[in-house]
Automatic annotation (TrEMBL):
PANTHER family: HTH-TYPE TRANSCRIPTIONAL DUAL REGULATOR CECR (PTHR30055:SF146), HTH-TYPE TRANSCRIPTIONAL REGULATOR RUTR (PTHR30055). Residues 18-78 form the HTH tetR-type domain. Pfam families: TetR_C_7, TetR_N. One of its GO terms (molecular function) is DNA-binding transcription factor activity. This is Transcriptional regulator, TetR family. InterPro entries: Homeodomain-like_sf, HTH-type_TetR-like_transc_reg, HTH_TetR, Tet_transcr_reg_TetR-rel_C_sf, TetR_C_Proteobacteria. Residues 41-60 bind DNA.
Length: 214
């Protein structure tokens, strides 16, 4: 089963509008991956999903709206912000950061994710407003989630972080920055392994004294 598929139990609880929304989104993602974003027309998507162009325009606005919705769904499916306090409360702070980094690195190195990122970058270069929307939908929630976590640790005396938001941005850049560029450029490199991610995180954890002060 691919990441864009939905279980029967989930589909049973959807309204007709939600089913139509997901059918169009599934068809669009499949066609974008098969033929490329530029070579896929809205008519192609309607033929595969059923329905009408009017419904597609009503739900997504245009082809960019479809791509943005696909990207948002992907980030939700891969739990781009998985820092649930109920889960992290049972882990050490260091293990929390490592678990986050491992999971997101794995998700971003999948063939589906790499293909999607290339489409997003290509369209973002062409349209600045689209780029801003993707940044708001995907990147800012990750920064906000990490910022909240670092703020909580600092307030509890469990880390020495004077600027939680800057630390959140630094963390994401340390772990993902060059990996994303390599994927987008099509550079044939092995994805970051857990040992390398662990090595990258050591100075971050040490500098901010995460889990070391009270």
């Amino acid at each position: 089963m691919t990441g864009s598929e939905t279980t029967f139990s989930q589909r049973d609880t959807e309204s007709p509008r939600e089913r139509r929304y997901n059918a169009i989104l599934d068809a669009a993602e499949a066609l974008f991956l098969e033929h490329g974003y530029e070579r896929t027309s809205l008519a192609d998507i309607v033929r595969r999903s059923g329905g009408s162009l009017a419904t597609l325009y009503d739900l997504f606005g245009n082809k960019q709206g479809l791509l943005r919705a696909i990207a948002t769904r992907w980030s939700d499916e891969t739990a781009f912000c998985p820092l649930d306090p109920a889960v992290t409360a049972t882990m050490s702070h260091v293990d929390t950061l490592k678990s986050y980094a491992f999971r997101q690195s794995d998700a971003m190195q999948s063939p589906r994710a790499i293909a999607l990122m290339r489409m997003l970058v290509s369209e973002s270069v062409r349209d600045r407003d689209f780029a801003a929307g993707i940044y708001r939908d995907i990147h800012l929630p990750a920064i906000a989630e990490l910022t909240e976590l670092f703020t909580r640790w600092a307030a509890a005396g469990e880390a020495d972080i004077d600027d939680p938001q800057a630390a959140a941005k630094l963390f994401l850049n340390i772990v993902f920055g060059d990996s994303m560029l390599n994927a987008l450029a099509g550079i044939e490199e092995e994805s970051l392994g857990r040992e390398e991610i662990d090595w990258r995180l050591r100075p971050f954890i040490s500098h901010f004294r995460i889990g070391q002060i009270h």
